[in-house]
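The following block was generated as part of the benchmark described in Methods. Ligand: zinc ion.
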Amino acid sequence: MRSPSTHRSRPPSPREERGAWLVLALLAVAALAGAGLLALSMMPGDWRLQEEAPPDPPQPAATRPAAPPLGPAPDPVVAPKVLDERPYDLNDRAIAALDEGRLDEAVELLEEAAAARPDVAAFGANLGEAYLRRARAGEGGADAAIDDFEAALEWIEDPERRAQVEGLQQRARRVRDEERDFVVEPTLHFTFKYDGSRGELTEGVDRLKVLLEDTYQEFGEQFGRRPVEAGEGRIEVILYDAAGFDSVTGLGDWAGGIFDGKIRVPVEDLRTELRFARVKSVLRHETAHAFTRSIGGAAVPSWLNEGVAQWLEEPARRSSGVGVARARLASSSLFPLARLNGNLVGWEDRAEVARAYDQALAFVDHLSVQYGPEIVFSMIAACREGGVEGAAAHFKARTLVELDPVLGDLADSLTR
Ligand SMILES: [Zn+2]
């Protein structure tokens, strides 16, 4: 995210940017069936709202319902219980489908399993989670997502979870209402959405399309991956007026933009060069977040994510921007890196947030100057497998130097 007033990036609000992604941690839960049979089913675990993380892979059911043990013949007056394995099969197949992103199929399988065995709570719970994932993916459009949130709520009892899902559903409604009449204009790698009746945007949007396609190629070189060519969808760029942006993101007018899987930017007017230039640099910043997500996944540390996004905003003005950040940092001590790993959203103190962003930019620049820019991008990529610690581990493996002391080098260089 990026603030226009200060030319600084800001973290998303937990309510909005984080709320856009659902982490559905699906745990395998053992359920003892009546005749001493063990059935492992997928159950929703401690899922929470977090924009930055993709769903954890569901754990496949490890144990099938065992065949009834051989033993004495059942009492002839009691009909022998026949175990119907089919719903468990459906559940297993649904887990595999969820794992591979085949959400429609997962929903269908679980609907059947839950209908066949309404007494197995895990099937219903899994169905609720599948609806949630499909709603979150939003591939069927806003109305379908809103319906899926509704369907999910039928299977969720926990009041706290219900409140979270209801919040997501309300946001989906606001997004639908806001974007109802937007034109949709795809380019090669982006899909632009905006209110086509706003004459103050039209010409500027055409210029932005060209610039952003150039940016895509530039970032593709630097990040070593082109998301669309790698099989991902076009990057959505949605332009709102100030009120619409606030309605959809809850961020008010201080934020310059947000990436929550889509790039959302408030744009008042593109007819003056100053405003155009500002939007352009916001879009470059948010596009950098899109590339970072694409190659590094959800666990890229904030200092690296925001550092790179700022570093790529305006190459022509990079050195002056870095110089300003370094000058501001010189007067106080730096944050330990670990403190800048997670989302900076919860930080109350605006001045501290500003310093965190300064430090992110200065440190990424320092790494790039001392070790070459390539290390910065490969550190991002390393987070896909290595999680939030992947960046530092990769740095050490490549340079034989611990990352934390390099931050000390940066601190020393500020006061020299
Ligand atoms: Zn940002």
